[in-house]
Amino acid sequence: MTAATICEGGITAAICYFVAKNPSQGRDVVKTGALILFVSGLAVGVAGILAAPWITTEAVDAFRMAFIAQPLIFAGACWVFALQATSISAWNLVRVMQPAAYCILIFLVVLGTTLTVTWAVWCLTASIALQALLAAILGGRTLPGRGRVRRDVGVELARYGSATTLSSIPLALASRLDVLLLAVLVEPAQLGRYTVANSIIIVGIPLCSAFGLVAMPRLAAYRSSEATEVSRRSSILRITFAAVSASLLSGTLIVIAVSAAAPFFLVALLGEQFRGGVDLLWIMAGGVALIGCNRTMHEILRGLGENIAVARCELIDLVAKFALVVALTPTMGIYGAAIASSVASGITFILLLRSVLGVLDIPLNTVLMRSRQLISMRRGPFMRKAATSTGRGSAV
């Protein structure tokens, strides 16, 4: 799965973008994308099979089996991401179906025999095949026709996909960079405390970032709609504001809830020795509240065709996190790494927000002024009520 994520070259995101942008050519996009993904999966599969003896010596057969399935994993994703652009409800069903099928198959294997790595790989491959089949059936209803492989479509997919990959690689590295550096800089026990705290506080990120996954194809569709410029701009602004606001609000609420409950369930579940992880969790909370919103803004910029802006912001995030972790950890230990992670998330949030506002041609000062006006409007009735109740607003 990691090989598929890195080596698919952003083609899956490109399929979603172009199907949403031009549904009339959706079948051509899916068919062309499927061919590109199949060839990429075949290359990854062959390379993995040949490299298996040098990578592992204990589970060579299971490793090779996983890479034999790469063409299926790659090509099967084309309809999954096409559904993201055409039917969110069907897309959600398909996304839930794969892990559910995997759990059921694992359970059946455990009932009948001993679970091994080979059996686990077989179950994973079967669940992905079922997901691809269901996605193709549902996708065929939303995008009728047969479609054909087109060179011009392939060029567009490759161009958009390569820009997406430029942003995906720094994001993938930055998401685990602090843990990788701490593995070298601190003792294993300290690393364990940090990892536990980090795993708990990030539990709500998938929910917060989901708003961006919904917004991305809609923004792509509105960009190419035949509506008037005023109507199109209004729709794009509305979707962007709703996605960013909902993501930021939900992320903040989830982090507050997890932080409040952490002193109780962390010790109850893992023991008294992990009480020190509560402080770490609280330090991380500020940055984690922004991570889901950052990923939402990733998808917004991708829906607006601004993948390079995402890549630029994520590269700065990677460099900033590396520099801060290396600078703070020797003197502050894992607490320094937690501070570094939060500060880097804040920097990325500001950069992404500026990029979104720049693409939409909205000055940051305008947003701040409107926010102050909104706060003043909400405070006005309360202040008048308070003044009346204390008698300070009455004329003598």
Automatic annotation (TrEMBL):
Which residue spans traverse the membrane? Answer: 34-56, 93-113, 196-215, 236-268, 280-297, 318-340, 346-369
Q: Give the domain of life.
A: Bacteria
- Keywords, sorted A to Z: Cell membrane, Membrane, Transmembrane, Transmembrane helix
Predominantly, its location class is membrane
**Keyword Ribonucleoprotein set for record:** no
User: Membrane topology per the record?
Assistant: Multi-pass membrane protein
Compartments where found: Cell membrane
Q: Does the keyword Acetylation apply?
A: no
One Gene Ontology term, aspect cellular component: plasma membrane
Return the protein name: Membrane protein involved in the export of O-antigen and teichoic acid
Upper taxonomic lineage:
Bacteria, Bacillati, Actinomycetota, Actinomycetes, Frankiales
